[in-house]
Amino acid sequence: MFHAVVAVKQVPDTTNIRIDPDTGNLVREGVPAIMNPYDAHALAAAVEWKRRLNGRVTVISMGPPSFTTTIREAIEMGADRGILISDRKLAGADTLATSYVLAEVIRAIHNEDPIDLLLFGKQAIDGDTAQVGPGVGVRLDMPVVTYAVGIRAIDLDDDTVVVERRTERWTEIIETPLPALLTCEKDIAEIPFAPLPDLIKSLRYEPEIWTIEGPVAFEQDMIGVRGSPTIVYQMGTPPLPEAGEVINTRETSIDAAVTFVFQKAEAAGVLGTMLGGGK
Amino acid sequence: MTARRFWVFIEQEQGKVHPVAWELLGVARRLASQVAEEAQASGDEVSVEGVLLGHQVRDIAAEAIKYGADRVYLIDDPVLAQYRNCPYYMSIAAVAEKYQPEVFLIGATTLGRDLAGAVATALRTGLTADCTKLEMGEVKGAKQRLLQATRPAFGGNIMATIVCRKHRPQMSSVRPRVFPAAPYNPDAVGEIIAEETGVTEEGARSCILEFVHAQEDTVDIEYSDVIVAGGRGVGGPEGFAVIKALADAMGGVVGASRPCVDAGWIKYPHQVGQTGKTVRPKVYVAAGISGALQHKVGMQNSDFIIAINSDPNAPIFEVADVGIVGDLFEVIPAMIKEIEARKEARV
Question: How far apart (Å, rounded) are the C-alpha atoms in residues B261 and B265?
């Protein structure tokens, strides 16, 4: 039977993040927490193939206890089982330490219930690193296909998957053996409306909480801050460039404004570029 | 005496080099010069080195030397003819184990980001994604200068500087177009060292069945000299017609801010910003774009920025060289008229 595991992360909705103009600090209050959008689409793809192949979907996430809401949301979307790996000692992990923990958890799941497909979002919108998925693939010695935009076929007899992968230059149609790890773009699947039984199930669902006490035995040197080779050395707000001159069409006229722009362009030496020099 | 090697991944596909490779050779040269003094004091040898994989790509290795590489490690093998994650990361991890580079830079392209995470994990080292600033600087408690890799975080609201104290190489993926290309010296000399991949076709574990080239809407905004970008102020997909008209008049391409792409008004390849492309054209026109930080980090290195917005308080004016407060649907047609008139006057 088909078994997919999807790794999801809860993220602040970064489109709503703002900076306190007086302190220069990030304003976290009132910023809604959501399931990372790319992960949500990866999960939708897993659920779509679970229905086609009569299989099941396990969702895993690493984070604080508040991430249970994201696991419940995954159950609502059609996942069968949800595991939250949550422990203070895991906090402060960079992408290397995160890929270690997730890989060990996935290995444990795989040993009791073999996995065919492992799905990640292409990146999380709060970190934008795109590093954890490939890292987990390397640790599990599993083929990795990043930037997946479609799953064309899954053949459980031959143990192969055919994936569409979009790069900057073209789309590649890649065949790779199962189990395989895909990191997904939003195009991988549409997020469907949750059927009522899944909705009801999610309300009562209690995610399994795994800690460093078990069931997986993590190497202490590999997790959290200790297991992270990188540290944040400095944080700052980006420097503001000098603002140029602004002309208001309501105070002058459209034509005067346009003339002003061309004067400025000429002074900056880019007039030729503006007159068709771009090609 | 030890060798302090600054590595750059020379990205190529089907024999075509991604320009970010030449940008990174420039960065690596600058980083190497920042440690020159301390290296001289301790008798260490500093070098800038390229790592090139592919099939029948020796010409590119020679090019890399002209862009400033002292040495290029070339792994030329049919199994590497097309980029695939497995054979590429395994081959690179093996040469990195052999030569122990101190710093390793990879372009933050789709290919580079696919590769960087895998290589860093295979080498069990730290990797900082999507950097926009790189320095070899003194870090408290460290004997040697370390790579200080700065990247925008939280949608560009914060700049975070990351260091990797103990693990080597110190790896970064670097945004294309943030740094200028290294100077080209046709007389430069360097060494090409051939290495073996060690990966067989079976070991590659994936097979590209087909390449599908997009029929429509392919655009390379990253390396265009002129970009006319539309934001929420264009009002809808049809609003991009006027943006396109100005881009055509100027011989440029169409860009867009994230809300327009999220709303489906225009396709993702047009997106400028933290989650889209970083650009540095000669002329950037931002029309109806308010100027969220996530957008500004992707375009503020442009040579000349023209902002058009009906809101005089729009933050886009903070980065603009010249701003027009007004209705873009009135201003842009007037600009096109002016361009056409001036073009005619020149003929």
Answer: 6
